[in-house]
Task: inverse folding
């Protein structure tokens, strides 16, 4: 049964909220830096980050865009002389990332299961369509969600639209995620609750200051704290 509280819909981010993701990017970045160490002594990671930033509007978020940015950076650092063997290793690293097994974060399944009967649950994730679908299927969590939205980016308009289609509007919804920039701040700007669940690794381009003065901002240590927080918000509503 659905509850009668004001809060009716809960959105969950996927990567680094329900399962590990960023750690695979960090491992591959170190491998990439070692691969090019003979061509540049330092700033390899900074050059890669600049390429990622430039390419977001073209390739979007995800492993494929990251792989293409690594190739672009390798060509730049070597002044166009990157050996075919280096390009092949970068492509192999990208394929490995696309095949890594899903590692659920602590309390992810039990928390989603606790909330699934009482609230509409929507998975809201950005990135490559095929990769996100693969990870959701492997996670075994797909059947617990009432809807899945794989989007190119997360903005206030994104949350307004999704929570109107799959819920009772943004004001009666909550977004839970590890990224302040993508999951929390735009959801609050849309009128939702924004719940921050910090992860030890966060991509540099996702860093923003927490909206500590926003009435609908909350932060929890991990997902085990979410059901109690949801209950308290529901009672307050």
Result:
């Amino acid at each position: 049964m659905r509850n009668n509280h004001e809060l009716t819909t809960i959105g969950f981010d996927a990567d680094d909220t329900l399962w590990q993701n960023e750690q695979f990017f960090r491992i591959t970045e170190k491998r990439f830096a070692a691969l090019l160490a003979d061509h540049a002594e330092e700033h390899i990671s900074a050059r890669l980050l600049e390429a990622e930033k430039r390419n977001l509007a073209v390739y979007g978020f995800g492993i494929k865009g990251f792989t293409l940015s690594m190739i672009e950076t390798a060509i730049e650092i070597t002044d166009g002389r990157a050996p075919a063997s280096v390009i092949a290793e970068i492509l192999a690293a990208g394929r490995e990332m696309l095949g890594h097994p899903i590692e659920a974060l602590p309390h992810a399944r039990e928390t989603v299961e606790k909330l699934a009967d009482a609230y509409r649950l929507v998975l809201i994730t950005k990135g490559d369509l095929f990769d996100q679908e693969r990870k959701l299927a492997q996670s075994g969590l797909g059947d617990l969600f009432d809807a899945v939205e794989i989007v190119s980016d997360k903005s206030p308009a994104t949350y307004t639209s999704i929570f109107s289609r799959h819920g009772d509007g943004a004001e009666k919804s909550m977004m839970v995620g590890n990224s302040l920039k993508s999951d929390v701040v735009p959801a609050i700007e849309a009128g939702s609750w924004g719940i921050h669940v910090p992860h030890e690794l966060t991509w540099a381009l996702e860093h923003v200051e927490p909206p500590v003065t926003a009435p609908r901002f909350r932060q929890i240590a991990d997902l085990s704290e979410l059901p109690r927080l949801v209950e308290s918000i529901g009672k307050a509503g």
